[in-house]
Backbone:
């Protein structure tokens, strides 16, 4: 069945991780400098969740049976308080992060990514918090965990410096992050900018041949959850001189026994490869470890019960793991 084949992911064309060339406005650093830093996410003060108005199913967008869950995407929903967003921004716009983790590609000219929990403890505690994961999982219809540290808290920064005068929606939409499928099953796109008076700045999502839906939270701290590996989307610039900053966190199924079509195509050209490959390997090995333990348990149980060895089942298991290992090997290539 065609739907069983995941979309081909096209990544940035550049040959290696490239530092961004344009400095971000000093005002971003200035505005976050005096925020008293908090190390850990606290749901009591930082969570502000309300259910999305609607959850679109894969069936509704013509992709029934594809992906890892029947859920395609949510409409924007409130997720974090103002205080939480201030903390996130204060961790992002530091000289340390801007100096070492500010990269660009032909998809987007300003991305902050690859910083670990050591450099941004609050951000990482947000996305590993059980309450946050509970919400994300409930909406996704499947239990999710962050894919790995490197792709947690990826941030797109777009500053409209065109000084364009906004006329009543007459202009063409400008892209802040080009059309693509993600390399990971689910993403949560969180708005980190104040949206007061923002024009544009949505995430545009292709729901069918001629059906593009634009989604954007009405306020800072709103988020959209989507099965980005299976739904084509892009980010639109905010017009009229506004900043548009979004944080994208990638998720994979928690269960080792669920299909996982995570690849590294979109990440390789914007990542430090040894670090990316280490984190990819670590989680892939964890999944394999759990699957092998489970298979071994089944074999031993049958043996103990004096049942005949399930040769066919074993073959199927091994073939599946071989596919998983082959994918893993195939993803850990040099960029040529
Ligand atoms: O910034 C957005 O709205 C979405 C960006 C995106 O799709 C991505 O970074 O993969
Ligand atoms: Fe994306």
Residues:
């Amino acid at each position: 069945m065609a739907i069983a084949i995941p979309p081909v992911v096209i990544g940035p064309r550049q040959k290696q991780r490239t530092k961004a060339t344009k400095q971000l406005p000093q005002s971003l650093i200035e505005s976050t400098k005096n925020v008293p830093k908090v190390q850990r996410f606290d749901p009591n003060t930082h969570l502000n969740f309300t259910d999305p108005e609607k959850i679109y199913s894969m069936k509704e967008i013509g992709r029934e049976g594809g992906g890892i869950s029947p859920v395609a995407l949510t409409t924007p929903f409130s997720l974090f308080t103002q205080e939480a967003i201030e903390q996130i921004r204060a961790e992002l716009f530091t000289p340390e992060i801007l100096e070492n983790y500010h990269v660009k590609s032909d998809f987007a000219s300003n991305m902050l990514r690859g910083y670990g929990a050591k450099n941004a403890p609050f951000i990482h505690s947000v996305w590993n918090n059980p309450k946050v994961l509970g919400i994300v999982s409930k909406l996704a219809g499947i239990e999710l965990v962050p894919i790995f540290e490197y792709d947690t808290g990826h941030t797109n920064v777009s500053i409209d410096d065109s000084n364009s005068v906004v006329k009543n929606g007459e202009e063409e939409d400008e892209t802040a992050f080009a059309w693509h499928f993600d390399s990971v099953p689910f993403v949560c796109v969180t708005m980190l900018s104040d949206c007061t008076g923002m024009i544009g700045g949505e995430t545009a999502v292709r729901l069918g041949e001629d059906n593009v839906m634009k989604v954007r939270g009405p306020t800072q701290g709103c988020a959209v959850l989507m099965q980005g590996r299976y739904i084509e989307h892009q980010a639109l610039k905010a017009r009229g001189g506004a900043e548009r900053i979004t944080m994208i966190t990638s998720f994979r199924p928690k269960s080792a026994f669920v299909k996982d079509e995570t690849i590294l195509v979109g990440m390789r050209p914007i990542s430090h490869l040894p670090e990316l490959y280490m984190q990819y390997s670590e989680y892939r090995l964890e999944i394999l470890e759990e699957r092998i333990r489970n298979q071994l348990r089944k074999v031993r149980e049958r043996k103990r019960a004096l049942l005949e060895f399930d040769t066919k089942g074993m073959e199927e298991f091994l073939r599946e793991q071989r596919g998983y290992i082959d994918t893993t090997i195939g993803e850990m290539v040099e960029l040529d």
Summary: The longest helix spans residues 273-304. The pocket of 2-oxoglutaric acid (ligand 1) is lined by residues 156, 177, 182, 189, 203, 233, 235, 246, 248 (CB under 6 Å). DSSP finds eight helices and 17 strands in the chain. The chain has two domains: 2-263, 284-331.
